[in-house]
TrEMBL record:
UniProt KW keywords: ATP-binding, DNA damage, DNA repair, Helicase, Hydrolase, Nucleotide-binding
Gene3D superfamilies reported in the protein's UniProt record: 3.90.320.10
Domain spans labelled PD-(D/E)XK endonuclease-like: 21-288
GO biological process, one term: DNA repair
The protein's name in its UniProt record: PD-(D/E)XK nuclease superfamily protein
Keyword Cytoplasm: no
Organism of origin: Nonomuraea fuscirosea
UniProt GO molecular function: helicase activity
Pfam families: PDDEXK_1
Disordered: annotated segments: 239-261
Amino acid sequence: MSSVAGQLPLEGMPRRLYSCTPSRLNTWLDCRRRYRFTYLDRPQPSKGPAWAHNSVGASVHNALAGWWREPYERRTPLTASILLTNGWINEGFKDVEQSGRWLGRARDLVSGYVATLDPTDDPVGVERTVATRTKVIAVSGRIDRLDRRGDELVVVDYKTGRRPLTQDDARSSLALAIYAIAASTMMRTPCHQVELHHLPTGEIVEWRHTDESLARHLHRAEDLASEAAEADERYRAAVQAPPGTTRRAPQGRRETVGPPEVPAEVDALFAPSPGPICSWCDFRRHCPEGQAAGPDRQPWDGLAE
Ligand code: SF4
């Protein structure tokens, strides 16, 4: 019979590449328990209801991506409004009136933003998946927009949240740095500039990386990946996880599914990180520490009303 230790890599043996996204690494960094709920427990523990601010964000992102796919002559503010309206995601709002009000605001956001763009200036990529690998990780992610400016590529990330952004947000973003490295590798073109486009204020926050700062982000990603990979292996060895995805109840309703039991020493690898973020965590219903850390929020509380 195999033991937990028997299933771990032998010392000195190369570990399998850890496949991940920047989002997975950031989840590991933010809260290991949430990481376990999101990426390891299967069936996945049931999430709370959809958030209205996420509906706004996804609707805006989809409309902006669709706008660039339109023929050049249709790339107008009106088209952006129509795309936004047709693809409006209605989940998480208090009522129809609130959803309608935010639809109006989001229409203004996208039409105002595209009015600042040159419709002839086709991006290199829109919602473009990029990937790169090192000896430790195979990392991939999707870039909102990849521009070419002169001889260089520029990573553009749209933001719709209420919090104003700072240059530190662009500088310290692991995701943006990884996207720059991956885009540059795939397209054999330099990419050092990363930008956050904050639609509610129209502000563009930019940061120009050096080769050294990009390398630092990549090493950090590798360090996080090594920690997470080791915890993943310990978890998988301890839990006989059934293959498959989230169970679904009849009529497509999601069942309430809790996390599986794991030995205490494995649970300890995925300790909670209670804090203000817990009020917004999709899995707080399964997390007593997170519930104690902050109040419950209504699905529409993230809107800047
Ligand atoms: S509620 Fe907080 S501590 Fe619990 S899993 Fe979510 S983020 Fe982590």
